[in-house]
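@channel sequence for tomorrow's demo:
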Amino acid sequence: MGGEKRDLRLLHYLIEFAGLMAVFSLVIVAPGADTAMVMRQSLAFGRHAGVFTSVGVGASLLLHLTATILGLGLLVAKSLAFFNLLKLTGATYLLVMGIRLWRSPAFAVPDVKAGFIAPSNLKSFGLGFITNALNPKPVLFFLSLFSTLVSPQTPLLVQGLYGIGMAAALIGWFVMVANVLTVPSVRDRFTTFGRWLNRVTGAIFVGLGVKLALEQV
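structure tokens (generated this afternoon):
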């Protein structure tokens, strides 16, 4: 009897996780600031930088998920002042980053022999982490997602495992993007228009910054 109950609980958890992933998979592939940052890092500095940027985005996602699971997401949702503080900080970061990218000269394909120095792994990780962390909207998204699809009776440990699975999926997606973009034939097509790519990426960041600044709870 105890074994049957355990199997039913396990099935329930698997169904919950499948529901979360079904919705989250649509969010993963939707272009946004994270995608733009991973693309830019991969094309400008190579696969290694793109991968560590991807890991930074995934780690930041865990931060948002942890806040959601522990109930801190309610603070963001209920406190207008706190939400606006996070929102304006994130919007400012995106606007500054966008302007810097717009004004940047064309980047070249990394060439170690020519003395190319790639950003450190920590810096690449930090860029990915900050780009995602300064946006309060994911907390609200996960708050609504978990409230809708996850039972209140689901243990926090199990919910934490859901979060780890979702973060791993996000990292996997962006690592794949980084690997595809750094294939020489693909990268060469992008870097041929390096300056314009910087401008397009910068415009995306500025647009996302403005959109975030205008967002309401």
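heads up for whoever presents: Residues 2-214 form one domain.
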